[in-house]
Design a protein that fits this description.
Layout lengths: L17 E5 L8 E7 L4 E6 L6 E7 L3 E7 L9 H10 L2 H7 L1 H13 L3 H28 L1
Antiparallel strand pairs: 1-2, 1-5, 2-3, 3-4
């Protein structure tokens, strides 16, 4: 009939060297990297992050979220020293801090810490900003 070219998505595959973030449990919000794939539901992770280290252990894939950061040419079942060296060489902490995921997380945590009155002040400021934007937009429409 014809040649069919089947390609798979290379976006966020479970692979050795992929950086993950824990989405719950004891290590919630901490970064680690996949060192070895145990089976289709579990991976061996190790996280030498400066903000919060994650010891080498088996983690369920349902407890972690895959990020877009991959440490290139990562060796399977690498030792702790190699993982730490590659982590710093790839500047994983800096890359994650620049990502929109980290920025949203910081913003969410800051909002979570607000008191009732502070939330009210944020609402009023957002209303004022929205009013100014709509007023400027109305002027632009009128002149056009």
């Amino acid at each position: 009939m014809g040649d069919i070219d089947i390609t798979t998505s290379q976006w966020r595959l479970v692979e050795v060297g992929r950086v993950v973030i824990f989405s719950g449990g004891e290590y919630n919000g901490r970064l680690a990297t996949i060192v070895e794939i145990i089976d289709h539901k579990r991976v061996l992770v190790d996280g030498p992050s400066e903000k919060g280290a994650v010891p080498r252990h088996s983690a369920r894939l349902s407890d972690v979220a895959l990020t877009t950061i991959v440490i290139p040419k990562f060796v399977r079942a690498a030792g702790r020293g190699y993982v730490r060296d590659q982590w710093t060489k790839a500047k994983v902490d800096e890359k994650f801090a620049e990502s929109s995921w980290a920025k949203k997380s910081v913003r969410f945590q800051k909002r979570k810490q607000l008191s009732d009155f502070e939330r009210f002040k944020v609402m009023k400021l957002r209303k004022q900003a929205r009013f100014e934007i709509s007023k400027t937009l109305a002027k632009a429409r009128a002149s056009a």
